[in-house]
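Hello,

Our lab assistant flagged a job as stuck in the queue for most of the afternoon. It eventually completed. Since we weren't sure the result was trustworthy after the delay, we are filing this so someone can double-check. Below is the sequence as submitted and the structure that was eventually returned. Let us know if re-running is recommended.
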Amino acid sequence: MPLQNRVTPFGELVAVPGRGLMMGNRGVLHDDARRIVRPWQVRRWIACVTEFRGRHREVMQPRRYTELFFLDEATALAAGHRPCAECRSADYKRFRDLWISVHGEPADADSMDRVLDVERRDGKQKRTHTAKVATLPDGTFVTSDGAAHLIWRGQFHAWSDTGYRKRRPLLSAGEVEVLTPPSLVALLRAGLPVAVHPTAA
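-- returned structure --
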């Protein structure tokens, strides 16, 4: 049985087979039996690479941070995670510099995390916002009929834990419910590079 440590674009932790291309964490979320007991512990939600300097970890060790897995970086951003400053140092610096140019300062990790913490959660629920489709950049996630869809190269791509499934053209007008936090949508619009799963190609 897969562990409940795969993250959806809604920020939910689910037990599904697909591991994905990225790892991350939100603190210690599991008990000694490797059961999820909380959806987050800390405000610092980060997205990491799955390999870094030859380090190896046993997943969900007692009292250690919970290793979370994302299909891709676009999924991690939709859930409200940002690049890790250690294993993704160059990505983090680019993210921070772009944050300064779009949102201004302060732009240290704690300041950015405080903004993201407000934008990604409404109590225990995922916080969403609405926007016109035509204004949303590639890499943004929206929801329709309870499902998550990636906007990528003029199409909606339906998310799954193993890759993107169905595609359909973007609507030319109208508003949608957006999963990716507003500050991150602004960074994507300003040119933040985002890695997506090969199935979106």
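-- support follow-up --
The delay was a queue issue, not a problem with the job. The result is valid. The mean pLDDT is 95. The first strand starts at residue 6 and ends at 7.
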